[in-house]
């Protein structure tokens, strides 16, 4: 099959990308399947238009770190954290979180559960492989949600579970990560609720404002797997993109590879044990009328691996709701009119998915 051979595709003038994508998809084994087959060259569907610069010459910036210790019983401490969060979300759109309340053993177990899912027997894993994004399937495992839309195929596989408002029955979840997914989601939901209260206060609103809008009504947990890559400079683990959520809580293993775009440069976010990374998604930027920013980020491919990360999206994009979201009225004024039209989360996510990760923000489509 031409797909396995990097050289044969690169010298063929009549390269048929669609056929290669289909051939790759039909294996139902993802990028891990290619690596397991022993490829030594990255197939052409994964090639970037120009090589990825893996060694940045610029001095590294450091992502803001926020410590939640004492926010529930010390009003002064809480006020400090709200200020720090406001600064981080207005500038970076990202921050790291310590003393977030999720026990370390649960974080470690979650990473292991995702790894165990991908390391199952191939034939067992194939039963979860699907491109049905309608919401009928409780667990979606595939490689590249935007495989047929994106200009570059990413060097990663993903499984996706909607964990709220209607969590799956335990038997609907893959056995290797069944128990921990339920435990971890419960903890993440608790943390997300606290963060959304702090964010509302950072906007000068009532602590319940974002919760009352439904920002914590839906939770999707994505388990990403980035296999080792023979030629990491030729491809990318995840193209630069913004998230289509209200907020995202990310847990990464010790491998590293996440980069955030800030002040015109890419900054590496080194993994720290016990720390989670939080970022604003497009929908938080939309409802705050650009006050909080949903920043571009990407994951580089790596010769050493695999890398595992777990992204928890606070979104109701997969839930059929007619609720229309627009910029929060209390944040608008004559000097700061609405910059976005109202939209449902479903309309937004459908547009985002159809567009694929193409280095542009889906928010532009909803600008007034």
Q: Given this structure, which CATH class is correct?
A: Mainly Beta
Number of helices: 10
CATH architectural group:
Sandwich
Q: Regions with pLDDT < 50 over 5+ consecutive residues?
A: 1-11
Task: Characterize the overall form.
Answer: globular
Helix-strand sequence: HHHEHEHHEEHHEEEEEEHEEEEH
Cα-based radius of gyration, to the nearest Å: 20 Å
Strand percentage, roughly? 15-25%
- What is the helical fraction, as a range of percent? 25-40%
- Number of domains as seen in the coordinates: 1
Structural descriptors:
single chain; 368 residues; alpha+beta; Jelly Rolls; four-stranded antiparallel β-sheet; 10 helices; L-ascorbic acid binding; Deacetoxyvindoline 4-hydroxylase; IPNS-like_FE2OG_OXY; Oxoglu/Fe-dep_dioxygenase_dom; metal-binding
Q: Would you give an account of this structure?
A:
By secondary structure, the protein is of the alpha+beta class. It has a single domain (2-366), classed as B-lactam Antibiotic, Isopenicillin N Synthase, Chain (Jelly Rolls). The chain has ten helices and 14 strands. Helix 4 (75-91) packs across helix 7 (178-202) and helix 5 crosses helix 7 (178-202). Mean pLDDT is 93; it is low at 1-11.
What does the secondary structure layout of this molecule look like, with pairings?
Blueprint: H1 6-10, H2 17-27, H3 30-36, E1 65-67, H4 75-91, E2 94-98, H5 104-118, H6 122-126, E3 139-142, E4 157-164, H7 178-202, H8 209-212, E5 219-226, E6 238-241, E7 247-252, E8 258-262, E9 265-268, E10 276-280, H9 282-287, E11 297-299, E12 307-314, E13 324-325, E14 343-344, H10 345-355
Parallel strand pairs: 1-2
Antiparallel strand pairs: 2-10, 3-4, 4-5, 5-12, 6-11, 7-10, 7-12, 8-9, 8-11, 13-14
Helix pairs in contact: 4-7, 5-7
